[in-house]
Amino acid sequence: LTVRAGSYADELVKTAKTIASPGRGILAMDESNATCGKRLASIGLENTEANRQAYRTLLVTVPGLGNYVSGAILFEETLYQSTVDGKKMVDVLVEQKVVPGIKVDKGLVPLAGSNDESWCQGLDGLASRSAAYYQQGARFAKWRTVVSIPNGPSALAVKEAAWGLARYAAISQENGLVPIVEPEILLDGEHGIERTFEVAQKVWAEVFYYLAENNVMFEGILLKPSMVTPGAECKDRATPEQVAEYTLKLLHRRIPPAVPGIMFLSGGQSEVEATLNLNAMNQSPTPWHVSFSYARALQNTCLKTWGGRPENVQAAQETLLIRAKANSLAQLGKYTG
Ligand code: 13P
Fold it and tell me: Which pathway features in its UniProt record (predicted)?
């Protein structure tokens, strides 16, 4: 057992297990200010701090959230923010039995020397930022990098993505944060499911190669993969059973059983599709907790229902709870629609 996670090793294992607890998953609400602005624009709201605060307050105060949600990923602004009633968002989450997490990457920029691909920034100063986030109450972290199938992916882009994730994971563990390792393989493209499977195998092989090289403790990480699906523009669609078959085959081939939890992103799938796919994956036993870390597939209806109106807050919260409960059942393999 490689334990180089400093003095935090036991706590990291405990945090990861708490997040990967039966019937629960992660609410991703860590949209950057730019992305949050797009979501607010879709309901005709301006991208002001007050509007972001109102929306995030709605999310963290959903009654009973902790029954289905074990962790919430926050953007830096929210980690330091209070609700509209003046309580720290982090304290509200802890009272709800939801572990606060923090997006620590600094976003994507063009990768020089590649085929129009990108890489993820944020390693500079990451150790001191992580220590500050821990002080502020965060117990896990997220770093999202992307791999594009239509643009390659080039060997360079895959290597850069894997190395960045591994450095981030090591730094997070040394500062007490459970790293969520997220190499998102984008849905865009006309390719079939076999091609996604091939690329995912390559990506996860490299990610685990560099995680091991960086002495990351596998018992204290969580993964956030894309499900293996056909490209968004592919004419051949896949059933939840096919998505589950390919995705589980990938996980069994590439992910050591020491990893406690696999928390999928929704990546542009519809709310129901994301639930059905997760449910299909939980029809047979696996060595890991197989669950969700959805943003759009938990929030879409909630955001629309709210529409920025105070009188709709309760109705919007109910729609979020419906999605959270559906995905909780899917985590247990018991969703029936
Ligand atoms: P989606 O579920 O909307 O893909 O977002 C999850 C996420 O956090 C992407 O990094």
Answer: Carbohydrate degradation; glycolysis; D-glyceraldehyde 3-phosphate and glycerone phosphate from D-glucose: step 4/4
